[in-house]
Specification:
By secondary structure, the protein is α/β, with parallel strands linked by helices. The chain has 2 domains: 156 residues, Quinone Oxidoreductase, Chain A, domain 1; 139 residues, Rossmann fold. The strands form 3 sheets. Strands 3, 4, 5, 6, 7, 14 and 15 form a 7-stranded mixed beta sheet that branches. The radius of gyration is 20 Å and the shape is globular. The relative contact order is 0.15. This is NADPH:quinone reductase. Keywords: NADP. Pfam families: ADH_N, ADH_zinc_N.
């Protein structure tokens, strides 16, 4: 390729992956004030990325959009106002494509410098590319309402991207972690991540299992309030917080009386709505956990950049583990 160009996957309008995604040669972006440019090694795909591309949840496209919030790579240029000492730093990327045409599905991306988070030098970039949205979501859910040290935490969907991060971060923060799963294979993922109690909700009575283990859960990381509202109100301790980060299962019916009697709080979070301070605090939790080697690589499926449409299709099918793109 000519100097100053790069390969990027992009879409110019929303729709099915095979119809709107293309891999093309484009001009390599330069960082502006307060920005860094990252040579991307690995790009991570989240449910939010495929929903944006499909038009289910999206923002206006200014000509084109390079997708994907998550990734890992090395800073190779900085804009005005950014410490030149960051050049050469290995980083993981957070919310790269939010309000920005340059997501991580390209050889280079440009982001505000605070969205390029320090990755310990000997850390596998594959792990770095699995952090971003799920790790920051889990960190915020666990820590925004106070410490969970010495507390019991319930993480629903422990084999999912957010759930698995929630298990590892919860254990690192000093909590006892209970999780729910839907199969033995997923139970093994959760046990490997360090869950203290794993409950298969398809074959076990979740309330009985949790009550047999815990006198009361203090924090819930909730992926499906529609399915779990009654369970959460039954197993929570007084003044517990249920943090809802997804809408799996549709609309929920909230048991009001038991929630009232226990003074439960229900917090609904969307990373897009968090301000920079909140995102940086949660990202700082992830960075400290990385320093302590508390986060590990989940099951992954890897695709080449040119196979991005197939990678999106797999993500839409509900994959086991994370879907990653290797960037040439």
């Amino acid at each position: 390729m000519p100097d100053g160009t790069m390969l990027a996957a992009l879409y110019r309008g929303t729709g099915p992956a095979a119809e709107v995604l293309e891999v093309v040669e484009v001009a390599r972006p330069d960082p502006g004030p307060g920005e860094v440019r990252v040579r991307v090694a690995v790009s991570g795909i989240n449910p939010t990325d495929v929903k944006n591309r499909a038009g289910i949840m999206t923002w206006p496209i200014d000509g084109f959009q390079v997708p994907h919030h998550d990734g890992a790579g090395t800073i190779d240029a900085v804009g005005p106002g950014v410490d030149p000492g960051r050049i050469g730093e290995q980083v993981w990327l957070m919310m790269s494509a939010h309000g920005n045409a340059w997501g991580t599905a390209a050889q280079w991306c440009v982001v505000p410098e605070w969205k390029a988070r320090r990755l310990p030098p000997d850390t596998d970039p594959l792990l770095g590319a699995t952090l971003g949205v799920p790790a920051v979501t889990a960190a915020y859910a666990l820590t925004a309402d106070g410490s969970v040290e010495g507390r019991d935490v319930l993480v629903h969907g422990g084999a999912g991207a957010v759930g698995r991060c929630g298990i590892e971060l919860g254990r690192w923060a000093g909590a006892r972690v209970i999780t729910t799963v839907s199969s033995e294979a997923k139970a093994e993922v959760a046990r490997t991540a360090g869950a203290d109690l794993v409950v298969d909700y398809r074959t076990e009575d979740v309330v009985a299992a949790v009550r047999g283990f815990s006198a009361g859960v203090h924090r819930v990381v909730e992926v499906s309030l529609a399915a779990n509202a009654a369970i959460d109100t039954e197993v929570c301790a007084q003044d517990a917080v249920v943090v809802v980060f997804a809408t799996d299962g549709g609309e929920a019916v909230l048991p009001v009386r038991p929630s009232l009697l226990k003074s439960l709080s229900f917090r609904f979070i969307l990373l897009y709505n968090l301000d920079r301070e909140a995102l940086e605090l949660a990202s700082g939790v992830v960075e400290r956990a990385l320093d302590d080697r508390a986060l590990t690589l989940p099951p992954i499926t890897r695709f080449a950049l040119e196979d991005i449409a197939a990678a999106h299709q797999l993500q839409e099918s509900g994959p086991f583990g994370r879907v990653l793109l290797d960037i040439p």
